[in-house]
TrEMBL record:
Name recorded for this polypeptide: Uncharacterized protein
Alphabetized InterPro entries for the sequence: EFR3-like_ARM, SRL2-like
Taxonomic superkingdom: Eukaryota
Organism: Nicotiana attenuata
PANTHER family: PROTEIN SEMI-ROLLED LEAF 2, PUTATIVE, EXPRESSED-RELATED
Length: 148
């Protein structure tokens, strides 16, 4: 008899759907920075941000500077989404993440400065809500102070 791979047929010889040998192997691992980005935001708009996870994300970014552009791109896209949805708490969380990035990743500031400034321009252009413009002013001030 010929050789049949165990990937196709389980060791018991039966074709049972519950058998672990027949389960799909298509599950991909989630990138760590994506998991951290998902965990920094509260589950509801009224919840508080997870400060410990924000610090973990910033420490991860400091140790892995090649991930900073992807993190910044995600934050910028999320900011645009939350502006359209008018979730000021989530915009505040994004501004807090950028503030921590400014403090912890000064050497890699060039990697996320363009994204940060695009977000600030978007916040300052909002003429309907003063709270969002205030967040934009505070973020711009922190960015300027971190330059010195």
């Amino acid at each position: 008899m010929g050789f049949i791979s165990r990937k196709l047929f389980p060791a018991c010889g039966n074709m049972c759907i519950c058998c672990p040998a027949m389960r799909s192997r298509s599950r991909q691992p989630v990138k760590r920075y994506k998991k951290l980005l998902a965990e920094i935001f509260p589950k509801t708009p009224d919840g508080s941000p997870n400060d410990r996870k924000i610090v973990k994300l910033c420490e991860y970014a400091a140790k892995n500077p090649f991930r900073i552009p992807k993190i910044a791109k995600y934050l910028e896209e999320r900011c645009h989404k939350e502006l359209r949805s008018e979730h000021i708490k989530f915009i505040n969380v994004i501004a807090e993440v950028y503030n921590k990035l400014l403090c912890m990743c000064k050497e890699q500031m060039a990697c996320f400065a363009a994204s940060l400034l695009d977000m600030v321009v978007e916040l300052l252009d909002d003429s309907k809500r003063d709270a969002i413009r205030i967040i934009g002013c505070q973020t711009l001030t922190r960015f300027i102070y971190s330059q010195v």
